[in-house]
């Protein structure tokens, strides 16, 4: 049986907002941090990591996304602030925050989780983390140049990157390579337009 490493995500559809996030990422890359930065074309917001899923399960996940798209209308999210997990004093994951649209994203996540359980999709990885919408910029291996990074956290704490409309949800494949993951679309579900 074949498996696909996959996740459900939304992408930043507003070009101006995306450009601001990419510019920040490039500025951070120039700080000499010890880590792996997300490639420009891979920037996204993960709704749900699925893990290694059987190809036979993919069709059912598409049905889950179609259901979500039938009950959720397009909406906007606003991105602002720079932060880190677990915190900015000991950063491991650097992210751009979501300051509005959080409730809609959390609602989508709840629907997906509920549908996965209802359909008995046992090979989908359980997600124990509390849902915290964010856009990952980098994953750090050490605290090299931490003081320079802390300065950026302060500078970008309330920075407004902008808004983007969410009009679709994507099922994405993640192929791991020595130079980093390659993401590709498996399926796109377009949210229903209000009549």
Verbal overview:
The protein is of the alpha+beta class. The chain contains 4 helices and 9 strands; from the N terminus they run βαββαββαβαβββ. The termini are far apart. It has helices at about 15-30, 55-70, 100-120, 145-155; strands spanning about 5-10, 35, 45-55, 75-85, 95-100, 135-140, 160-165, 170-175, 180-190. The chain has a single domain (about 5-190), classed as Alpha-Beta Complex (Cyclic Phosphodiesterase, Chain: A).
Number of domains: 1
Overall CATH class: Alpha Beta
Question: CATH superfamily name?
Answer: Cyclic phosphodiesterase
State the helix count: 4
**Order of SSEs:** EHEEHEEHEHEEE
Q: Tell the overall outline.
A: globular
| Integer average pLDDT | 94
